[in-house]
Amino acid sequence: MKKVFLTLAFAGLAIAANAQIILGGQLGFNTTGGTYTQENANPVWDMPNNKAMGLTVAPTISYVLNDKMQIGLTLEYSYGSATNYTAAAYALNQEVWSKTSNTMFTVAPYFRYYFANAGKFNFFCEAALGFGISPRDKHHDYSNVPVVGYDNEYDGITKTTMIGLSIIPGVNYRINDHWSADCYIDLAGIAFLHNSVKTYGTPTDPDALVSTDVTNNFGLVADMSAQTINAHLNNFRIGFNYHF
């Protein structure tokens, strides 16, 4: 099995001569997959491992109010998919798989306050208010097994909307006169999330609204345990800015 996690960032371009307006953002991608081979079978057979993929694109535009304060807006698009395979079918030289994919669109205005600096390091807290919507999942089932073979695509049963407020610390590092980097420290912060999940589908009407499930979560994060640190390092977030 192979697993790749990659976090890149757009190069931000200052679009005002005085560098009061900065355009930047983040790009994240991860994928998991591989191959499974049954070596002691006769004949030997193989199949893909279950696969997963995630993509996040989050351009940001910000306005520098002064040396201490900055406001901005992030538009985020995220996509995820997972494909599961059936080993029993592949053992008979057949193919059966099921794929689920989902998307999320988020708009998040934010306010950043720089509270300390040490040389080229500038420490900040950033408060962001996010509004997001995830349309109904997409499903695709496939089988080439004789008699019961199928190739179906259909909408899932749930649609999600969310409102979230987070206050997270971070650090900005000034690389040189033109470049700087932002690093968000998810090991500490405050977050509130309002989540609404609508379920659709009845035997006679697949688009009928069946139920609405609303949850509210509030959390204060201040965990420096090794397990938590390792978990956050796997989702390391960093962005780059270019200043004219």
Description:
The protein has one domain (2-242): Lipocalin (Beta Barrel), CATH 2.40.128. It contains two helices and 16 strands. The protein has helices spanning 87-90, 226-233, and strands at 2-8, 13-14, 21-33, 35-38, 45-48, 51-64, 69-85, 96-118, 121-134, 138-143, 150-155, 158-174, 179-184, 188-200, 209-222, 238-242. The strands form two sheets. Strands 1, 2, 3, 6, 7, 8, 9, 10, 11, 12, 13, 14, 15 and 16 form a 14-stranded antiparallel β-sheet that branches. Strands 4-5 form a two-stranded antiparallel ribbon.
Summarize the structure.
By secondary structure, the protein is mainly β.
Features of this protein?
mainly beta, elongated, two-stranded antiparallel sheet, 14-stranded antiparallel β-sheet
Number of domains: 1
Q: Using DSSP, what is the number of strands?
A: 16
End-to-end separation: 44 Å
In N-to-C order, the SSE pattern is EEEEEEEHEEEEEEEEHE
Shape from CA axes?
A: elongated
Helix content: under 10%
Topology record:
Blueprint: E1 2-8, E2 13-14, E3 21-33, E4 35-38, E5 45-48, E6 51-64, E7 69-85, H1 87-90, E8 96-118, E9 121-134, E10 138-143, E11 150-155, E12 158-174, E13 179-184, E14 188-200, E15 209-222, H2 226-233, E16 238-242
Antiparallel strand pairs: 1-3, 2-3, 3-6, 4-5, 6-7, 7-8, 8-9, 8-10, 9-12, 10-11, 12-13, 12-14, 13-16, 14-15
